[in-house]
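Q: Okay, next protein. This is DUF3349 domain-containing protein from Gordonia namibiensis NBRC 108229. I've checked the sequence twice, so it should be correct. Can you predict the 3D structure?
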Amino acid sequence: MSSETPLFESVINWIRKGYPRGVSRTDFPPLMALLTRVLTDEQVTAVAMQLVKEYGPREPVSEQQIHDAIKRVTSAPPTAEEVNQVAGRLAAVGWPLLPSRP
């Protein structure tokens, strides 16, 4: 992961601070929706892979499974309330509420 940008490390650090015990199932979809606003699909997959390594499930998960899961949860967008809840949690630990990427 040393070739990743400082943005990647910043995102991981914000998530670690906002979710010290790991991201809950209910917060995962809005978190992915927030990440897709500021990161590329590849970067979002890399963040998810890092989270799996740190807080991972009991069974191994492949990068393709992560990619597919992200597509599933972002294909049915979370509500504005859910996104605001997660954004608020991350803002409390320094998340810069950036506008959507172009």
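A: Here is a summary of the prediction. Residues 37 and 100 are 4 Å apart (CA to CA). Helices lie at 6-18, 28-38, 41-55, 63-75, 80-91.
Q: Noted. On to the next one.
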